[in-house]
Structure formats: structure tokens, C-alpha cells
Amino acid sequence: MIKVENMTKQFNSLKAVDDVSLEIKKGEIVCLIGPSGSGKSTVLRCIHGLEKPEKGAVYLNDQLLDPKEEHYRELRNKMGFVFQHFNLFPNMTVLENLTLAPIQVMKKSKEEAKEIACQYLKRVGLLDKKDEYPNKLSGGQKQRVAIARSLCMNPEIMLFDEPTSALDPEMVIEVLEVMQELAKEGMTMVVVTHEMGFARTVADRVIFLEDGKIIEENSSKAFFSQPKTERAQDFLNKVM
Ligand code: ADP
Ligand code: MG
Question: Which one of 38, 44, 79, 180 is least enclosed by Cβ atoms within 10 Å?
């Protein structure tokens, strides 16, 4: 579903992403893990078009993601992105957060957008919060709203950048459970995370990055039981 070819992204002289190639198949759950500053977010942001790599190409269903192409926006809308800090619109209610893009971008009627939004709010257990403003919600609730908002755009793939890192520990579970449900339903997912339990039990595959490079790529099972590289082993010793 996603193909990244020889992607390089520099910030001044720093190669944040250094010649990364990877593929994500339909229905796969892939976790990007690695130390802080290893380039995980930048890889994800380049896939979504939030950053522009100097080199390389990203394909979605064999179609090149190129801002100069006419179908670029349409392609991009097939990817949902969930941020560490939720990025909800503070001046809008939960329901307005969810219906904005479907109405403006997908040209849905208000009624249809509301109906879909309520469906997804119900799925993340927050239908009763539809008329609240984000500042009235806990971190875990905000992130579940952010996930529901992405789902309203009917994405083919969901990209998560440390969705639980900004949350108090007791709220991590409720977000991971929503993600696990999505995974079960067959959603294709790429997840940057430090939640090794999630990576081990939910991911099909793990990609381990360091210094902007892919150091190791393996099935989740193999990665956690017998990492191939010393660097991955060192990392796992530190975080587990
Ligand atoms: P990770 O998500 O693995 O912690 P990042 O992708 O955020 O790593 O960052 C990779 C490297 O690129 C880091 O050294 C970081 O400081 C740098 N970097 C990321 N974004 C920017 C930016 N917008 N401007 C300058 N440097 C950046
Ligand atoms: Mg990051």
C-alpha cells in the first residue's frame, strides 16, 4: 500500500532521514521504533507530506505522491495522521472537529457528516462528549477524538506519531485499546511508539531506526525474541 524509495530528509547539515526504503502492505501493522532523534517522526511526516524530502519517492497504491500532480490531495486524504499532541481545533466542539474536513474537503452534507462523526465517536466511547470543547476533555479522551476525526475521512491507512507519549500513564491503555480494535478490523497502520508491549503484541512487523537509517527490520516476534543487531539489542535492553 505504501512504498518509500530511498528517502533522504536533511535539516541543514543533519540527515534526519538517510536513504530509507520501506514497504507497508495492506492490512499490516508496522511499528517504527528507535531512540529519540533517530528520524521516526520525520519518516512518518515525509510519508504524509508534512515534510518534503530532498530525495526519494513515496507511493500510495503504486501512485506517486507528488504535490505537483492533480490527484495529490485526493491521495493524501487516504492517509490519516494522529499526532502526539492531538492537534484538535480548540475553538470547535468535538463534533465540529469531526465534521469540518468531511464537509469542507469531502463535500459531505452536514447531516451525513454528523451521522458519520457520531458513529465514530460511539466507537471510541465518546458520543456523550460530542458537544464539549477539547479543553474539557482528558488527554486520553482528546486522543480518542483525534483518532475518530481521522477515521471520519475514511482513510485507507493510519499513521500514528507517538499517540500515547503525551498522556498520563492511566490514559495510555484507553488509547491503545482503540488502536488495537482498529488493527483487529484490518486497518493498515504505521505506528511510531515507545510502547513496546503494543509493538510486541499488536504489530506484525517492526522497523528499527537509528541516525536516520533502518538498522533492522523484522517480524515483531523475531525482533523481540532475537534481534539481529547489537544496536537493537542495546535499545531493547534499555527500554524493556
Ligand atoms: P524521532 O521522531 O525519532 O525522535 P525526529 O524525526 O523527530 O526523530 O528527528 C530526527 C532528527 O531531525 C533529530 O536530530 C531532530 O532534532 C531533527 N529535526 C527534526 N525535525 C526538525 C526540524 N523541523 N528542524 C530541524 N531539525 C529537525
Ligand atoms: Mg518523534
Answer: 180
